[in-house]
Design brief:
By secondary structure, this protein is an alpha/beta fold. The chain is 35% helix and 18% strand. The strands form two sheets. The chain has a nine-stranded mixed beta sheet with strand order 3-2-4-7-1-8-11-10-9, sandwiched between helices. A hairpin with a 2-residue loop joins strand 5 and strand 6. The longest helix has 16 residues. The protein is globular and about 55 Å long. It starts with a strand and ends with a strand. The model has no long low-confidence stretch (mean pLDDT 94).
Length: 394
């Protein structure tokens, strides 16, 4: 038995000043409409939690169920930082595969503060994420800049390469009516924008956004009895790192010990996330038609291209310069426009990535359609070792 994506829905991303439930409910209704189902057809609801929006955000599954109208559906809620959406999808998929339900609704939405993210309020000296802000001054842009500096030192990437990522994603975003930023930009504009954390300029870094995304998942048996999308959810990976994890990952302040050499076949964390998804789906990087990756910064997109196996380490810049990852290229990366065009709405991100994969694989992406798309991969990660990768197939 397999799991099918029957419908997808999103609330446009931006800064709307409304409760997160408004965005999640709007996305859920769009997904149900796309699936051709009624809310009362849903047997299980999974909410990806938002930690900034009061108690309803911590129990988002029940919050969405109440807002849509109590129906007796079973609920679950989960939080895994930026991997929350992937874990919510995995919970729903697992319940369907176990034969405990036929139809599940997965929803994630956020209402974010102005500016970059900061620690949740209060003194928490035993919380490494609180400590990295207070002791190191390592805001998220500083974190992204450390990765960018590492890439420049190890692979010779340049600020011009980073700017080219933004130019590519802004072009794709200009074709996406759900994106927050829909203006095209030039490399000169990116490089002239204010420096935030050297070497990253303001336009190299994704914003924080309000937004929502939802999908309706169903058993293949159930989906066959209804019209609608026929995209298969082939894999969901939520792996954690393996020892030794030798590349610094905030909020941790130091790498694991290297007294012991990595075992044969050891993969760095981000590469392991995608590898587990490929293994489950019985596919490889050579099969991928398009990819949605976690472009918190322009430099991180280049790292992710290598982590998911689109090219060997150090060669993402060349793939980018050759136009291979642009719309119309061999392997478009972030054809939605990515976080560069949307911004971060943490619980919704992995779900929104699946929405884009589904729209592309269904041939409904309009001007940004990837030709002959058959396999889509989405990847991101959450702090504290939460993996997040999804493979969808036509």
């Amino acid at each position: 038995m397999s799991v099918v994506v029957m419908g997808t829905g999103m609330h446009p991303w931006g800064k709307w000043g409304r409760p997160f439930l408004d965005y999640g409910v709007a996305a859920a209704r769009e997904a149900l409409k796309d699936a051709g189902l009624a809310w009362t057809d849903v047997q299980f609801v999974v909410g990806a939690d938002t930690i900034r929006n009061g108690y309803p955000g911590f129990v988002s599954g029940a919050s969405y169920a109440k807002a849509l109208g109590w129906s007796g559906a079973r609920v679950a809620s989960c939080y895994a930082a930026c991997a929350s959406g992937a874990q919510a999808l995995d919970i729903a998929r697992t319940r369907i595969l176990a034969g405990l339900c036929d139809v599940a609704l997965v929803v994630g939405a956020d209402a974010t503060p102005k500016g970059f993210f900061k620690p949740v309020g209060g003194d928490r000296p035993d919380d490494p994420d609180w400590l990295r802000f207070r002791l190191l001054g390592a805001t998220n842009p500083a974190y992204f800049a450390l990765y960018a500096r590492r890439r420049m030192a190890v692979h010779g990437s340049t600020p011009e390469d980073f700017a080219a990522v933004k130019v590519k994603n802004a072009l794709a975003g200009s074709l996406n009516p759900l994106a927050r930023y829909r203006g095209r930009v030039t490399a000169e504009q990116v490089l002239a924008s204010p420096m935030v954390a050297d070497p990253l300029h303001l336009m190299d870094i994704c914003a924080t956004s309000d937004g929502g995304a939802a999908v309706v998942l169903a058993s293949e048996r159930y989906a066959r009895r209804h019209s609608g999308t026929r995209v298969r959810l082939a894999a969901v990976s939520t792996v954690t790192p393996t020892f030794p994890n030798t590349v610094l990952e905030l909020p941790d302040f130091a790498t694991d010990s290297r007294v012991t050499d990595p075992p044969s076949g050891h993969l760095p964390f981000r590469a392991a996330i995608a590898h587990a998804a490929y293994e489950e789906a019985g596919l490889g990087p050579q099969d991928v038609s398009l990819a949605e990756v976690y472009d918190l910064s322009t430099a991180l997109e280049l790292d992710w291209m290598e982590d998911i196996g689109l090219c060997p380490p150090g060669e993402a810049d060349k793939l980018l310069r050759d136009g291979q990852t642009a719309l119309g290229g061999r392997i478009p990366v972030n054809p939605s426009g990515g976080l560069a065009s949307f911004g971060e709405a943490i619980p919704a991100q992995a779900i929104a990535q699946l929405c884009e994969l589904t729209v592309q694989l269904s041939g409904r992406a309009g001007a940004r359609q990837v030709e002959n798309a058959r396999v889509g991969l989405a990847a991101n990660q959450g702090l504290f070792g939460h993996g997040s990768a999804i493979i969808a197939t036509r």
